[in-house]
């Protein structure tokens, strides 16, 4: 591929629909005609073109452009965007605008050569001018890159992330294969990469595009919980995504399978396709569960009963036969599953198991998938519980390049048993990492409620294990928590059985308020949150009350509800700084939620005596409050639980959302004193019984539902759990059959 750099002196023709352009470019003291697709009018711009020289029969020599980059000088908007990108300290949006208004195209050279002149701009003093100049000098090599990215419509915050990832090689890397952005940059999906590729002139049938499209479809299915996609569905979805005639797709799928990026297999007589990490995880989870489950500890019930009796004496609770069975099996078997709804004694059993192991002198690790769930079991068991990630020592490796689990097959967990609480939230990838670190001889006890929503990540781990009937499973169905007037637990069980909940009884804790009109409904939710519940019961709205909605979009969706709740409890004010980012304005005082695991986020706890502790890691679902916004340093500060303070550069605000209202999915593993939930129409795929069940089991003291009974009845009746493509149950069953055949073979 040849390259040529020059200035477009005239555009002869431009098709505004497809961008096809014929223009004259002055390059190397010569004038040459360039032809190709240009996303914007490039007249007067200095550009770099990539392509080849051809001889046109009529017009003579021309340069056929495959891709192009805009080179400085660039438009004022781009200069302004670069200055306010967060890379230059001391410049926010407002200052950037002012600087460009004063210095126009000369902005960069002024900052570089005569930074003292910055003081001509209103609001910039000598100190600030100096800071800007220094920061600008540090960033000088990335200027061109930022402008290249922005000329391809990449937003400032993504540009910063891209530069951080690729550094000086940014332009080359993206020009070579813009689709790599989908792999390397969090938040950039196929669609954005495709837009960039189009603006670089990449062909629609390029193999890079097809393979990226296939991966996008596989990952998109995975993000909705599936570990694989049936071949035909993958083909059709990819076709719809790429909008081509389909040419090359099947070939590329085959190539990808040969190269090892994807895996094709027959499951239940159907050809299916896996993105390799999910296949590896599913196969390994199956193998490891079976191996662990086959361990014989050489113990009998009689060996354990004396310990069990002693443990019972310590507590005031007499375990039922089923509960005893759960405790005994957990100690006798390599792998045991204990499942049951709220108040059926799961925590009580965990505590008994812990006591028995302690008496036997055995070491047990207790863990849960989220920080909040780990904190809850720590509080109720009085024993330290960690998140699974923390237990597996998820951290940077020695070369500091990649995050990985330091506990694995080479350095397994040194203990006699691992108890995982809230296991319904564990997806196939995390289960794989957990199992890698559990060596044979260590018991694995999985405790959870299989009727809760499945994990957010791919897989149906708990329910597949139970459905496979290959792992010892105890189902608890007697409810013990029956305090007077409390309907929450009873209603959870009613809903689970397909019956309507009982509500609005005198002095009870479960209410339904009818409201059909969507405006009135959201107003009522806000009124309950802001006034009625705090007044009547003394709840603190921000700390005690959580609004849960089944969906993100729509009038009663999380986005709209958050806007209304924010306007009510934390309205704009002269004394509160705010920062607009995407759909939300973040304001000092706002309740926010982290929506991604960020193992690098540094937090700081400052004690009253001025001493500080620092650490790393803020996780998906963590809730905090905005305490400070620093426009000069371009940072927003959030205080999370335990007073952990985290500084978010503005470019990282995509990790936060307002959290007055959250989706039911995001609330898994958390509990709140009060839950308010709108009951409105929504897609049946979403409004399921187990979503409703999960929502109400989040509440400890009070549930208030607002909406129309019919939609509540629809949810209760809708027990069609959104089918996930996952084959762990199939693999477990097949593996056990194979083992059975093998051992029969050995017996002969
Ligand atoms: N066998 C029993 N006899 C009497 N009370 C019991 C028995 N088992 C459990 N309980 C009591 O029932 C209540 C609920 O038990 P526990 O907290 O263990 O259930 P859970 O399944 O963990 O509930 P959740 O999932 O809602 O946390 C507790 O107060 C516990 O003390």
UniProtKB/TrEMBL annotation:
Signal peptide location in the record?
A: none
Give start and end of each AAA+ ATPase domain: 332-451
The UniProt entry, under HAMAP family, shows: RecD2
What range(s) does the Helix-hairpin-helix DNA-binding motif class domain occupy? 81-102, 116-135, 180-199
Q: Which InterPro entries match?
A: AAA+_ATPase, Coronavir_polyprotein_1ab, Hlx-hairpin-Hlx_DNA-bd_motif, P-loop_NTPase, RecD2, RecD2-like_HHH, RecD2_N_OB, RecD2_SH13
Q: Name one Pfam family in it.
A: HHH_RecD2
Question: For this chain's UniProt record, which GO biological process terms are given?
Answer: DNA recombination; DNA repair
Q: Which UniProt keywords are present, listed alphabetically? A: ATP-binding, DNA-binding, Helicase, Hydrolase, Isomerase, Nucleotide-binding
List GO molecular-function terms, semicolon-separated: 5'-3' DNA helicase activity; ATP binding; ATP hydrolysis activity; DNA binding; single-stranded DNA helicase activity
The entry's ATP-binding residues are: 343-347
Alphabetized CDD domains for the sequence: DEXSc_RecD-like, SF1_C_RecD
Which superkingdom is the protein from? Bacteria
Keyword Nucleotidyltransferase recorded: no
This molecule's function is given as: DNA-dependent ATPase and ATP-dependent 5'-3' DNA helicase. Has no activity on blunt DNA or DNA with 3'-overhangs, requires at least 10 bases of 5'-ssDNA for helicase activity.
E.C. no: 5.6.2.3
Q: What class of enzyme is it?
A: isomerase
Protein family according to the UniProt entry: Belongs to the RecD family. RecD2 subfamily.
| Descriptive protein name | ATP-dependent RecD2 DNA helicase
Per the record's keyword annotation, is Hydrolase included, yes or no?
Answer: yes
Catalysed reaction, written as an equation: ATP + H2O = ADP + phosphate + H(+)
Could you state one GO cellular component term attached to this entry?
Answer: exodeoxyribonuclease V complex
């Amino acid at each position: 591929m040849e390259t040529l750099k020059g200035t477009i002196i005239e555009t002869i023709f431009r098709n505004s629909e497809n961008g096809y352009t014929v223009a004259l470019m002055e390059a190397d003291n010569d004038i040459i005609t360039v032809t190709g697709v240009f996303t914007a009018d490039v007249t007067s711009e200095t550009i770099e073109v990539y392509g080849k020289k051809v001889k046109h029969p009529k017009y003579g020599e021309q340069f056929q452009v495959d891709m192009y980059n805009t080179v400085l000088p660039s438009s004022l908007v781009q200069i302004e965007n670069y200055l306010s990108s967060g890379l230059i300290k001391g410049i926010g949006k407002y200052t950037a605008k002012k600087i460009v208004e004063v210095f126009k195209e000369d902005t960069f050279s002024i900052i570089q050569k005569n930074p003292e002149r910055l003081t001509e701009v209103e609001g910039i003093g000598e100190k600030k001018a100096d800071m800007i100049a220094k920061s600008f000098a540090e960033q000088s090599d990335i200027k061109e890159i930022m402008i290249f990215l922005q000329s391809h419509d990449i937003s400032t915050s993504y540009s910063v992330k891209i530069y951080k990832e690729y550094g000086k090689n940014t332009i080359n890397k993206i020009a070579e294969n813009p689709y790599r952005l989908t792999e390397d940059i969090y938040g950039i999906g196929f669609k954005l990469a495709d837009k960039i590729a189009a603006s670089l002139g990449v062909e629609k049938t390029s193999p890079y595009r097809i393979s990226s499209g296939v991966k996008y479809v596989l990952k998109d299915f995975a993000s909705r919980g599936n570990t694989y996609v049936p071949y035909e569905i993958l083909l059709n979805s990819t076709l719809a995504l790429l909008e081509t005639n389909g040419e090359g797709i099947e070939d590329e799928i085959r190539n990808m399978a040969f190269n090892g990026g994807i895996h094709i297999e027959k499951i239940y007589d159907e050809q299916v396709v896996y993105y390799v990490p999910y296949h590896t995880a599913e196969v390994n989870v199956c193998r490891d569960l079976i191996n662990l489950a086959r361990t014989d500890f050489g113990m009998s019930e009689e060996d354990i009963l004396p310990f069990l009796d002693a443990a019972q004496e310590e507590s005031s609770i007499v375990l039922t036969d089923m509960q005893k069975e759960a405790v005994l099996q957990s100690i006798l078997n390599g792998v045991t599953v204990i499942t049951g709804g709220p108040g059926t004694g799961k925590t009580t059993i965990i505590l008994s198991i812990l006591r028995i192991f302690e008496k036997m002198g055995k070491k047990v690790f207790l863990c849960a998938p989220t920080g909040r769930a780990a904190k809850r079991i720590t509080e109720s068991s009085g024993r330290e519980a960690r998140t699974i990630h923390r237990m597996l020592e998820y951290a940077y490796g020695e070369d500091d390049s990649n995050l990985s689990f330091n506990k694995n097959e080479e350095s397994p967990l040194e203990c006699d048993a691992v108890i995982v609480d809230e296991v319904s939230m564990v997806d196939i990838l995390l289960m794989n990492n957990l199992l890698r670190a559990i060596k044979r001889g260590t018991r694995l006890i999985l405790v959870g409620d299989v009727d809760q929503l499945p994990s957010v990540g791919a897989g149906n781990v708990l329910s597949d294990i139970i459905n496979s009937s290959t792992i010892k499973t105890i189902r608890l169905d007697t409810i013990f928590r029956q305090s007077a007037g409390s309907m929450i637990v009873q209603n959870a069980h009613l809903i689970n059985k397909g019956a309507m909940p009982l509500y609005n009884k005198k002095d009870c804790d479960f209410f339904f308020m009818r409201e059909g009109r969507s405006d009135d409904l959201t107003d009522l939710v806000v009124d309950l949150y802001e006034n009625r519940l705090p007044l009547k019961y003394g709840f603190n709205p921000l700390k005690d009350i959580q609004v849960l909605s089944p969906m993100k979009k729509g009038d009663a969706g999380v986005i709209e509800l958050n806007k209304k709740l924010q306007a009510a409890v934390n309205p704009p004010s002269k004394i509160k700084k705010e920062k607009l980012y995407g759909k939300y304005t973040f304001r000092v005082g706002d309740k926010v939620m982290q929506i991604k695991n960020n193992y690098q986020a540094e937090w700081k706890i400052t004690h009253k005596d001025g001493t500080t502790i620092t650490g790393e890691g803020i996780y998906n679902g963590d809730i905090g409050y905005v305490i400070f916004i620093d426009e000069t340093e371009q940072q927003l500060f959030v205080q999370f639980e335990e007073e952990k303070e985290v500084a978010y550069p503005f470019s990282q605000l995509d990790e936060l959302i307002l959290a007055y209202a959250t989706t039911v999915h995001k609330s898994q593993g958390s509990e709140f004193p009060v839950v308010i939930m709108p009951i409105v129409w929504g897609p049946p795929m979403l409004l399921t019984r187990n979503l409703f069940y999960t929502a109400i089991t989040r509440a400890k003291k009070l549930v208030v539902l607002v909406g129309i009974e019919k939609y509540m009845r629809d949810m209760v009746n809708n027990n069609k759990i959104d089918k996930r493509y996952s084959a762990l149950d199939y693999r477990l069953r097949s593996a056990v059959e194979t083992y059975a055949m093998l051992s029969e073979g050995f017996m002969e």
